[in-house]
Amino acid sequence: MSRRVKRRLSSLSYTINKFYRKLSTAKPSALILSALAIAIAIFLFGGGIYNLVRRPLPSAYVNVPGGGRFIFLYPQLSEQFITDSIIATILYSMGVIGALTMYQSTKYAYKPRQAHLMLLIGVVVLILAYVLLETTIHMKLSR
Questions:
Q1: Which is nearest to 119 in space by CA: 92, 93, 99, 89?
Q2: Which pairs with CB-CB distance under 8 Å and at least 24 residues apart come from 49-55?
Q3: In terms of C-beta density within 10 A (0-12 exposed, 13-18 middle, 19 or more buried), how is residue 91 classed?
Q4: Rounded distance, CA 7 to CA 26, Å?
Q5: CA nearest 94: which of 119, 118, 120, 130?
Q6: Torsion angle of alpha carbons 4, 5, 10, 16, nearest 10°?
Q7: Tens of pLDDT along 131-142?
Q8: Cβ pair 129, 135 in contact under 8 A
Q9: Termini Cα distance of the chain
Q10: Strand, helix or coil for residue 61
Q11: Residues 42, 90 contacting (CB under 8 angstroms)
Q12: 71 near 79, Cβ under 8 Å?
């Protein structure tokens, strides 16, 4: 081998070693880690694994006397449409946003009006998400 090739190979191994060292000692921020954990939890709670494994239908058209209609929520708890997952994911995200808004309201202790408003908005969004989730479950059970 020529000297130039040997130099490049030794330089390449040094570069790879340096990259590996930076990658192994990197410390991601707590904000990124918590956002990633929340996103994974919402994905799992929303039924993302079920959608990947079973590949359900997006929705269905039902023929009923007097005309047909689309149904977006599967009428049993044992199965689901993709729209079931989308609705659940949106509602879980609303709940997380409400909880984060309530948490952010604690940071405005020196502005009581803004803190109370943010707390009220967070509570309303969280309760709305909970009520809508319970309503969707009740709709699935009542069919």
A1: 99
A2: 50/80, 50/85, 51/82, 51/85
A3: buried
A4: 28
A5: 130
A6: 120
A7: 999 999 999 888
A8: no
A9: 77
A10: strand
A11: no
A12: no
- The C-alpha angle with vertex 123 and arms to 117 and 129, in degrees rounded to 5, equals 135
Over residues 27-60, the pLDDT tens digits come to 889 999 999 999 999 999 999 999 999 999 888 8
Q: Is the pLDDT of residue 107 over 70?
A: yes
Question: From the centroid of its chain, how far is CA 111?
Answer: 31
- Where do the H-state alpha helices sit in 26-111? 30-45, 48-54, 82-105
Q: Locate the domains of the chain by residue range.
A: 46-141
Q: Which residue has the tokens 């494994």?
A: 53
Residue type, 28: P
Q: Give the pLDDT band (50/70/90) at residue 77.
A: confident
